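Entry for zinc ion complex. Fields follow.
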Amino acid sequence: MAAKKLEISGVVQGVGFRPFLFVLAKKYHLKGEVSNTSGGVLAIVEGTLDNIKRFIRDIYDKNPLLASVTHIESSDTQVQNFSSFQIVKSRASKSRATLISPDVSICSDCLTEMKDFNDRRYEYPFINCTNCGPRYTIIEDIPYDRPKTSMKHFKMCAVCQQEYDDPLDRRFHAQPNACPDCGPRVFLTDNKGKRIDSDSKNAVTLAAQYLSQGKIVAVKGLGGFHLACDASSKKAVKRLRLRKARPHKPFALMAESASRLFDHVHVSSSEKQLLESYHRPIVLLNKKQTKNNHGPVLDVAPYNKTFGVMLPYTPLHYLLLEKGPDILVMTSGNRSGEPLSIDNEDALDAFSHIADYFLLHNRDIYFRADDSIVRFQAGEQRFIRRSRGYAPLPVLLNKKMPKILGCGGGLKSTVCLTRDNYAFLSQHIGDLDNVKVYGFFKNSIDHLKNILDIQPDIIAHDMHPGYMSTDYATAQKDVKKIAVQHHHAHAAACMAENDLDEAVIAITLDGTGYGTDGHIWGGEILLCTHKAFKRKAHLSYIKMPGGDAAVLEPWRMAASVLYQAFGNDFLSLDVPYIKEVQKEKLSFVCQMMEKNLNSPLTSSAGRLFDAVASLLCIRHEISHESQAAMELEAMANENIPEKNILDGVYEFDIIHHKTGDNDRLFEINMMPSIRQIIEDLQEGKPLGLISSTFHHTLVAAFTDAAIRVSKETGITKTVLSGGVFNNDIILTGMIKALEENCLKVYTHKKVPTGDGGIPLGQVVVAAALEEK
Ligand SMILES: [Zn+2]
Ligand SMILES: [Zn+2]
């Protein structure tokens, strides 16, 4: 007889792990006990050594769907002659290293019960079990036990308690376990907060009816509020746009099943799998050309090639779709620029002018989490936003890290904390210029520090002196601070998730990043290690007349490239752009640029996209981030037959600047392309063709420069990062062109290529600088 103590770490709490061990111990005739600790799960087993070995092997191979075992520390212990195998109370321990599960969509067992008229949880909107339900968003502290969640206010009835106590029940220690007798309830109010239902069931049925009648309903969900309406009702969608003052930005959709979508979008088998995964992200799917009148109306996502679609993830969503419209618009419920609403009172205050009705409930959301957004590009799954359903699962790194906090950038911000081999990325936080988002940012850091038990020794932040995240970092006391250049962080994030430790060529294309020369970078090729970088190529600097105003008004960037390409003469060019934009406005920005007034310099690829989008008269002013660039991409004619994508592109110059012996900086000048675009416009060439040629030209220019850097340095590994790689034509084209030229390409699959991935790079750079 042998006795072993097993300390199991990973996602092992709240996922049915102890019952799994209970059944497994029976199978191998082992006696002993198992308990949750703050560090994970602790099992003591007694039996034959062979059976204990099998037991351990099965823990790795056969653990529950939602569990993930990262390590089992096994040690000999005294034989105590246990008489059975038991699940015992949680033990506190010094280390608090357990991983917390993200929120999990309703499982098929619970769904079946919810639809069963004879089940005691028939149509109960909060049905859940150890395999499903809320987690991260209801946790106040660890270990993950009911009194430390927002379920602490609900006392289980005798029947629920019995399920909760029975190791063989699917609801054994399911912390949010509840039923209609003892658990949370939904209720419906009008837009003044006046209650209008008679009971829970009636509330859902009424809400569904109102949705079918074209009304807008604010729905309290898992990680926050949604504003919902019937996606096939032109009037309802239009009203939602008007009331939300959101003229163009695409709305997300929710359909009961993937097959419901087949008429409206293309769904590959991997996309279907992702839609149906327990993470339930919004998946961007290419629209079908369809004359079907029953699908989502055009207004849901105008000027876009894709719809963002998700499947229901809470029981309440299923009930609404079953009783209401087939496909719902489900857009985030937040005041413009603010974080998602999670509180009933706040929502009533924020949306009384938008929603006609409010479907509320009394289970508090402790920690908000926006829906995640994912897209398949170049054959792989890519995050646009990594949030609900994924956070706070860590990214596994190939080396042990000191305890570091990465504060992220300024827009689409997230934060990151490290411990051992883990990098824990927060959910999506938002744009920090908003005071409430900044509050959420600080809250997120404190909450994550607490539940992950990480007190950072180092804070890594962006070099930008104007970012709120930089402000936060510099205000912290008694901790080492390390500033990391924005594009170096982008590159390091991509290196880290691909386990690259050696020097690489990093192509980083985005909208804005503070450069070491004080200018705004964003069209860069860097030579990078984790520790350091050297700028090897960049787009020629152009002016941003009006500074930040030029980000919101792409016509200013168009004026800037025309000024650069033609000088003052551009005002007399015969193209639609000059006719559409007022002469006075153009002469005004011309003077600004001439006198160098409020015209910072930028090498940003994002601004170049804006310029071309406006030159083509696609979008002169934007109402949401990256709008012009996304519409330019949607306009591109990609149906041209497969050819070498570097053929038939516009002209560009690569200028060599000598920076040392056998060391050059390459400047990529796109002005020859701009002149050719103007010629094409004057000849009346189709905009789709001009747009796709521009895309391919940018790919060709950066490939050309990357090859030069590779020849000079002998380095062939290339990483791609930055928000511009959300653009499908650029990402796919770049991978193809670089690979055709024998460069090895690495891209983002675990964190967003945009600024949501920045804090991962920051912590990696900071850790490298700390290494002696
Ligand atoms: Zn379940
Ligand atoms: Zn109950």
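NOTE: The pocket of zinc ion (ligand 1) is lined by residues 107, 109-110, 128-129, 131-132 (CB under 6 Å).
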